[in-house]
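Good day; I would like, with your permission, to put a structural problem before you. I would ask you to consider whether the tokens describe a fold that such a sequence might reasonably adopt. The full record is reproduced below for your convenience:
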Amino acid sequence: MSQLYLSHHPLVLHRLAILRDTATPPLLFRRMVRDIAQMLFLEAAQDLKVEPHTVTTPLAPCEGKRLAERIGLVPILRAGLGMAEAILELVPEAQVWHLGLYRDHRTMKPITYYNKLSGQAGLDVCYVVDPMLATGGSASAAITLLKDWGLKRIRFVGLIAAPEGVEALGAAHPDVTIHLAALDSHLNENCFIVPGLGDAGDRQFGTETE
């Protein structure tokens, strides 16, 4: 099984409660997605390699460090966009590759409708970002596409997961670490995470319907 990392940082937990609240409007919801994504990425990126780099301060030369790896971000459309944009603020040199998958509500299987992967995978490490890990089908399918593309070091960063999704992703890709803000109770009969937060894409972009 994959290694699961749950954040217990007080600032993550505080924002998570705001994120779940039905009274939270899209503008604040997007801000919470941004904040939590950045905090989770800082935890998930602790194993990034650095190399020596000398800089000149106003007083003297100083030995420092700089990132020594090529980083990729892969948001699963469309809900993963807010997370990717937030993380890109921390690592602006990262490449962003988009994958579009949705869950067929009849079969509950992932359908790939957009794949921007092309050429050779010139990356050292890749972070798949999607707010919700429900059944695990879309995340597993996305990671399979990335492995077929040639990637070996892959991390999954999400906000909330169901145990069923963690188990499915871990079984399909035991080498992929999973970084989350919360592991919830279960999936309901419609494969929504309970208690969850509803549809992360609709709540980010204000497209919820009655």
User: Anything to note?
Assistant: Residues 62 and 154 are 33 Å apart (CA to CA).
